[in-house]
## 1
Amino acid sequence: MKYGIAVFPSKKLQDMANSYRKRYDTKYSLVPPHLTLKDPFEMEENQIKEFSKEVRKVAKKASPFTLEVYKFSSFYPVTNTIYMKVRENESLLALHNELNSGNLKKETEHPFVPHITIGQEMNYDELSDVFGRLKLETINYEETVDRFSLLYQLENGTWTVYETFLLGNDEK
């Protein structure tokens, strides 16, 4: 089964992202707007409880952090993806690193770039046009993140929360 770990931002930020996603993101209906902390990975279902225990340890040690979205960017030419760029900070990077090391380490395809995808699998002309307009806009949005979620993918491709972890204060 496929799993991943992500932060779901506030409704306000999700609404902002969805205003673009419903037009430009082919995966709009499969998962809400999110910041990926651990790329999708395969794991047997019988391993999830032990994995979840390790993730809980990381969450307890981590601190809430500021999620600051400050501009639009693109992964072109690697992929035709447009995203809202999230400013890196020490707490966010430490959480990502902890969730991707030790017993939780899995191979990753790309380096960590904190972002919220708003468009993907676009043809070049559309990407060029949309990104050209968005580059001229600025975003100044900030919120505090105090939790993240372990997700699993259903057979139809949608992602569902398996468990949510509070940062620094997980009571489970």
Note: The chain has four helices and eight strands.
## 2
Amino acid sequence: MQLSLISLLGAATLAACQNATVTGKLGDARQVRNNPVIGEVWQAKFNGTVKGVVTAVANTVGVNYTIEVSGLAADKGPYKYHVHAKAVPADGNCADTGGHLDSYLRGDSPPCDSSKPQTCEIGDLSGKFGLVAGPTVSKSFNDPYSALNIINLGYIGDRGIVFHDASGARIACATLTKVPTMTHDHGRRLRRRL
């Protein structure tokens, strides 16, 4: 009887550990509702073997992402994609973009549970929204935990977007930069020329 009670307690403890929600040392991510300019556009442009763009647009809640890339080798996927902590350096070395954007100090182990995206690393977009396959990707989604307000923990501006192949190697990277908007005066001058 004692052995079966110990076995039962062990099984219950194991089940509780497996079902425990993993969260960051600073808690769960908070939804972003204070982007300063709704509709503001940021883009990461890929110009190597992988070509295309990842676009991030400030929304009333979080950021709307669109991924439009080609050149991902069909036999090297599925691919993960993340916002990394640093911009891509001038030499283009993807290894120098640091780790995933992890503002709430969660870490990447165990893997992100997409049914609880608030418990994932901010930058783990593929963990929250699914892996992609090559050679071409066209995907859109809203991440309520990404921000384009520099005061938020989920701020993604001027950070690297990195694609990883199935082995985890960083195979393409580009920096999210703000797309300039036409000012009112500039638009008026442009219409006069036409």
Note: Confidence is low (pLDDT under 50) at residues 1-19, 184-194.
## 3
Amino acid sequence: MATEIVFETHSWSVDNDRGIATGWLPGSLSDRGRELALELGERRRADRLSAVFTSDLARAVETAALAFAGTDVPILHDWRLRECDYGDGNGMPAAELHKDRTLHIDRPYPGGESWRQAVHRVGRFLGDLPLRWSGTRVLVIGHVATRWAFDHYIDGEPLEELVNADFGWREGWEYRLT
């Protein structure tokens, strides 16, 4: 049986406002981000979710906690859903860090990981998901690396194309993991 996955990015953070690439730093939601997290909850509470999985980074955890406060939907934190580890670049200006992401498809950021390593890490989460959640609908709250892994492993998109494309934020992406 297929597992239905709804993917949402963590809500808007203070670092998003400042143009900072948070990476593996915890980050925190801005006032706008807290409002958007509440809207996410309103949008998804009646979505037949069996569970919510979230990156263990603070900005994703805070998004899930606000969105699903007062519900009985279990919220499970998984480090494999983290953003790419930019290593020494965690916390630097995003425009500077991401000026040529193709350089880091296979070459790790100094002190961190490559995009392929990050996508592979999320792929291990996808490999484990059907063991307990087959035939259910789950929500995953994550980051760019999380979505690229879903696009790569579920939809067959080449990582080289994903790294060069605009992220194109929207209210949720839907996947079927078979």
Note: The chain has a mean pLDDT of 96.
